[in-house]
Specification:
about 25% strand; 10-stranded mixed sheet; alpha+beta; single chain; binds flavin-adenine dinucleotide
């Protein structure tokens, strides 16, 4: 059923003329689409794969002010990121959640624990006290507070706050795509840009439907290149010249069984001196990351990467038995696209700033988005809209608030209706939170439709796959509204099932077939076969 939404959008892409065509549906493209469409600009978006199929599904899932950039004295960047984090916290209270970072400092580390604590106080001040205050923890108190930490070499520690994306990064991105669709954006996944050319004062982008192989042209006044690590390659196809370009730093995460019941991020400095996190991910723990310079953005996880992460975890925690490769449930890998001027010296690339840069060619009405972070996404959306207006495109609703969860009254009404039908009483015992919270966070105002569906048929509140925290009625909703073309789109990005359930358990889950039937109807067998064949 959802493929119909996509197919009709693909048709419209070839038929209509747009003010703006956005290439790439990662976080930068998604916020640009929501911001433009939300202000009434006629917008289209294509991605050569699934939405958030690139780096935006491989992050650490943190919305953070960048405490580590204090060490490189990038106060302005930290100030900007803290402001962005605070705005996200306010706009998405059920998605961007504050969490404590329990930080352990080893003896012999380059700074004394108390000095690091003072840094966290400065961070808290720069963050305008929007979170709970930091606390110093003496070396002796570390093990009492968090027994899983190996305290033999611990000098001391601290606890401070930042935020994380409760569901996951890909879901966060998709919700911007969904919002843009609500505002009339014509978006389609699995449509690739093969290059764009100028003709008669407009852009003609040669597009290819990756599913059918068909090619067609998309006409627009402005092109926004938001292809993440592929911005340079896509600009080359269109002959767009820029002052900035990307360098790449690869980072991986491993997902393992929960290492502690305390719901907080365990923070260390790894053997390479960099920050290293163990972050709650639903019922599991996500561990990482690494920072390796690479030339090619198409990367995979190597045994060396795995062993680096596992050996650090085993050295820093008291795990019995220690973690081995067999304990890895899932992996995440991507490159950080780092914006740099072409002529700048790049010797110390790890120190390269993680700021985003929007480079505009006003004469040809072309924008390229370099670098950036999920945390700063709202600013990217706002700046793209400013550039588009400056390029002479009419912005009919400049002040519309295009982001954020629906207002408090609607939430109260939803919670009341959920309470009156005892929705939370229907929550599966294996779930990590009540159904009302989850439904509201994932679907906002569309969650009312789920209540209606459950009133019709209570059995649709059952979990389809064990530990997956997805009920049948949510999959029905996803089939209609979430443009799921392949089963992997649902298992890895709309949901995080693939990240928290072992592959062997997914493959034999009785509900997998039923999920496929709901999502793909008559194509269910084919989509399931394709999915099972594509897995390790
Ligand atoms: C290991 C790691 C950890 C990170 N942790 C954090 C964190 O905790 N917090 C944070 O704020 N940031 C974090 N980041 C940074 C953040 O994830 C990225 O900066 C951000 O996701 C980049 O988004 P993007 O939209 O630019 O790129 P992408 O998400 O890669 O999106 C680009 C899209 O363009 C599409 N595309 C490419 N070529 C074409 C084409 N020819 N036609 C159509 N589409 C095309 C791709 O398919 C892709 O979907 C992390 C990054 C990494 C690698």
């Amino acid at each position: 059923m959802t493929v119909t939404l996509r197919n009709s959008n693909v048709e419209k892409l070839g038929e209509q003329e747009f003010d703006v065509l956005i290439l790439g549906g990662g976080i930068n493209g998604a916020v640009a689409a929501a911001s433009l469409a939300g202000r009434g600009v006629k917008t289209a978006l294509i991605d050569k794969g699934d939405f958030a199929g690139g780096v935006s599904s491989s992050s650490s899932n943190l919305a953070w002010g960048g405490i580590k950039y204090l060490e490189t004295l990038e106060f302005l960047l930290v100030n900007k990121l803290c402001k962005s984090r605070n705005e996200l916290m306010r706009a998405y209270p059920s998605t961007v959640k504050e969490i404590r970072f329990f930080t352990t400092i080893q003896r012999g580390f380059r700074f004394w624990p108390f000095f690091v604590f003072l840094g966290s106080v400065l961070y808290w001040i720069i963050g305008r006290f929007a979170t709970k205050a930091p606390r110093y923890i003496s070396g002796r108190a570390i093990e009492d507070r968090e027994p899983v930490v190996n305290s033999t070499k611990t000098a001391g520690g601290l606890e401070y706050s930042d935020c994380y994306l409760y569901d996951n990064d890909a879901r966060f991105v998709f919700n911007f795509i969904r919002k843009s669709l609500n505002y009339g954006c014509i978006a389609a996944n699995y449509v690739e840009s093969m290059g764009a050319r100028r003709q008669g004062g407009e852009w003609i982008t040669a597009a290819r439907d990756v599913i059918t192989g068909e090619t067609f042209d998309i006409r627009s006044k402005v092109v926004v290149n938001a292809c993440g690590p592929y911005v340079d390659a896509v600009n080359r196809l269109s002959g767009a010249r820029t002052e900035y370009h990307h360098l790449f730093s690869k980072g991986i995460h491993l997902i393992v069984d929960k290492v502690t019941d305390n719901k907080r991020v365990l923070t260390f400095f790894a053997s390479d001196g960099r920050l290293f996190f163990l972050i709650p991910m639903g019922p599991k723990t996500c561990v990482g990351t690494t920072d390796t310079q690479v030339d090619d953005p198409a990367v995979g996880v190597t045994d060396e990467d795995r062993d680096f992460v596992l050996s650090n975890v085993n050295a820093l925690l008291d795990l019995e038995p220690p973690l081995t490769r067999a304990d890895i449930i899932a992996e995440r890998v991507g490159v950080r696209p780092l914006a740099t001027r072409r002529e700048s010296a790049t010797a110390d690339w790890v120190q390269l700033s993680r700021k985003h840069v929007i480079e505009a060619d006003e004469a040809t009405r072309h924008l390229s988005i370099f670098g950036g972070k999920l945390t700063d996404c709202l600013n990217v959306g706002k700046q793209v809209a400013q550039w588009v207006q400056r390029m002479g495109i009419d912005v009919p609703e400049p002040d519309n608030k295009w982001y954020g969860e629906p207002g408090g009254d609607l939430r109260d009404e939803f919670m009341l209706q959920a309470k009156l039908m005892d929705l939370d009483g229907m929550t599966d015992p294996s779930s990590s939170e009540p159904l009302s919270e989850r439904f509201w966070r994932r679907y906002g105002e569309s969650a009312f439709g789920l209540l209606e569906r459950i009133r019709e048929d209570e059995s649709c509140v059952e979990l389809l796959i064990e530990n997956a925290e997805y009920t049948r009625c949510e999959i029905e909703l996803a089939a209609r509204r979430e443009m799921i073309v392949k089963l992997e789109d649902f298992m890895r990005r709309r949901s995080k099932i693939e990240q928290v359930v072992r592959w062997e358990d997914i493959a034999k889950a009785p509900g997998l077939q039923e999920a496929c039937d709901i999502l793909f109807e008559e194509e269910a067998q084919e989509r399931l076969r394709e999915y099972l064949e594509g897995q390790p």
